[in-house]
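Note to self: user wants both folds in one dump. Writing first protein now.
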Amino acid sequence: MKKCLLEIINSRRTIRKYKNKKIDREKIKLLLKAARDCQSAHNTQPWEFIVIENKRLIEQIAKLLHGKSKNVHIGFNILLKEASKILMQTPLIIAVYNTKELSEKFSFLGKKYKKLCKLYEIQSIAAAIQNITLTAEILELGLAWLGISVFCEKDINRLIGRKSSLMAILCVGYPSEFPEKPKRKDINKISRFIR
């Protein structure tokens, strides 16, 4: 089961369709441990992960996204509808929150520093999500990272009893699809060497 990191990165795909199969609690804990063990700015670990297995609650969140799709600009409405479809058939979601510990800790320094700390929090949380994503691949789980869910932050927070800043919803399950690898830009087009 153990793979080289580069193989894991190369084989990872966004999975939008899942089998109707419950995920082992031990596998869920491994995903959370991978997130927790991630590097973070000043080791603040500014994240909170809410694991939701309740199908009815997941469907309510899906309906919130679908409802919001009727009130946003073209393009975003399509993304919200697609996210809603994915949520409707996922067995488990992880709502990822920013606890804002770093930005609140240094808010006394003024807006400029608070803004910088918010960026550090976002970077730290994105790294934690990437750890979850790669660990899911190792555990033969599929995952879709739904950033579009922040459009419904207030409603989702009300539904699950949170007050923090929602960063993303991760859909997790055993894959029932294996998409082709999407075309990637040439390395020479995305990089520059300065000697």
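First done. Writing the second protein, which came from a different request thread.
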Amino acid sequence: MFIDTHVHLNNDEIFKHLDEVLEDAYHVGVKKMIIVGYDLPTSTLAVELANQLEGCYAAVGFHPTEIKEYTYKEYQQLEELAKKPKVVAIGEVGYDFHWNITTKEEQKDAFVKQIELAKKLKLPLIIHSRDAQQITFDTLKENKAQEVGGIMHSYSGSVEMAKEYIKLNFSFGISGPITFKNGKNMKDVVREIDSKYLVSETDSPYLTPHPYRGSENGPKYLPLIVQEMANIKGISVDVMAKNILNNVKRIFGDKYE
């Protein structure tokens, strides 16, 4: 059995043919998924879908490019969502300096608020970090995020930085780029970092793995990612999948069954 720890079933494109997406996922053994929010509407939908779908859980949070108009009211609504029974994490949250939509100051304020919420509710974090590895690490460390830990989503940083994140109680989401010829950093992390810190994700509908790159991604492609992880580690795909399930149980604790 496989678990997709980061999937956007709440994305408009996937939601249009959700039944097909789920059927294809179940057919290849992807029986558990964490549906990740990135603003208030998608976080709300993530919770609704988790309640409706067997084997699905939710993460709720505000992506760094989506926080421009958010006030105290939206953060209060986020906290209420985060208290729902099938919510297992706060995310995706962090920094994104690729898009010039929100300022560094705005992003940091939103990030710190959500780290504090995660600590208050004792939920792990799912971290988005694009063009921002050092400031992401520094913010997590300064705000004692190691108290809850979590996952570095679709981690593409260095092995050296990964070792520092481990000290802060973080594991690494491995996604489609592990199958790319130019996915060197992710391949190196899988090779060099202990398997107990690795989990699998698709980030569907984004980051479609080879050989389907360019088409819509879906959890049905997760076995390709886990197979590549297993190949790099020199173990069977079954052993890799079992390791990932054990890691997920450790990260998400009692809320994940």
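Dump finished. Worth passing along: The chain has one domain: 2-255.
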